[in-house]
Amino acid sequence: MNYVGLSKEISYALRHAPWEYELEMDENGAVDVQQLIASLREDRKWKHVTLEDIAKSMEVSDKKRFEIRDGKIRALYGHSIPQKIIKEPEEPPEILYHGTARRFLDSIMKEGLSPRGRQYVHLSSDTDTASLVGKRRDMAPVLLKIHAKEAWLQGVKFYHGNETIWLADIIDKKYIEV
Ligand code: HQG
């Protein structure tokens, strides 16, 4: 079983295109895992996919992207679908990090961090994670330090993604340090 391929396809379905898989998504972005399996099985590639395969693909993955609970599966972050995934705001740590490409820096320091194609801005709780995120777009990424607690105290909303990923609404440049 191609676990990486399976994880990528589930990411695509749950974050970007549940309608292509005829999935009914609740307000937290969760879908019936059996419905997902049935839909994946329509594709020859995933004809024999099982719940165990999905669990295994989550287990061997480099990141915690999904959560299965009460027979439902959801992506923990990364959504771009029009239906906004409801997240409970939570108090963030003092400092969070964001790794990005050098070419975006001027624009970010002018306009702040915006979610761009996704529903939320993605931040990392440690510099290693932020640097890996940034390396997707630039071999020598810039690391931004975000004064998250200060922003939170001034009304900016933050949400938990997984252990290392936090989500937020737009982050004004006054909270960002290069
Ligand atoms: C940039 C992956 C110019 C921002 C990762 C980023 C993460 C601006 C890009 C997760 C800007 C958006 C998300 C502004 C933001 N001007 N550029 N004002 N504001 N940007 O991919 O945070 O492997 O949507 O810096 O590991 O890179 O898929 O966000 O470079 O956790 O599970 O606009 O996706 O996880 O890019 O990555 P993205 P991201 P997975």
CATH architecture of the largest domain: Alpha-Beta Barrel
CATH topology of the largest domain: ADP-ribosylation fold
Helix proportion of residues, in percent? Answer: 25-40%
| Strands in their spatial order, largest beta sheet | 1-3-2
The hetero molecules present are: ligand HQG
Average predicted confidence as pLDDT: 97
CATH class of the largest domain: Alpha Beta
Number of strands: 9
Q: Could you state the order of secondary-structure elements as H and E?
A: HEHHEEEHEHEHEEE
The tally of structural domains comes to 2
Describe the fold and architecture.
- The chain is an alpha+beta fold and 178 residues long.
- It folds into two domains: 3-75, Arc Repressor Mutant, subunit A (Orthogonal Bundle); 96-177, Alpha-Beta Barrel (ADP-ribosylation fold).
- It contains six helices and nine strands, in the order αβααβββαβαβαβββ.
- The strands form three sheets. A three-stranded antiparallel sheet has the order 1-3-2. A three-stranded antiparallel sheet has the order 4-6-9.
- Strand 2 (66-69) and strand 3 (72-75) form a beta hairpin.
- The longest helix is centred in the N-terminal third of the chain and has 14 residues, at 3-16.
- It is elongated, with a radius of gyration of 17 Å.
- It starts with a helix and ends with a strand.
- Bound molecules: ligand HQG.
- Residues 63, 65, 78, 100-101, 104, 107-108, 111, 113-114, 116-118, 122, 133, 137, 165 line the site of ligand HQG.
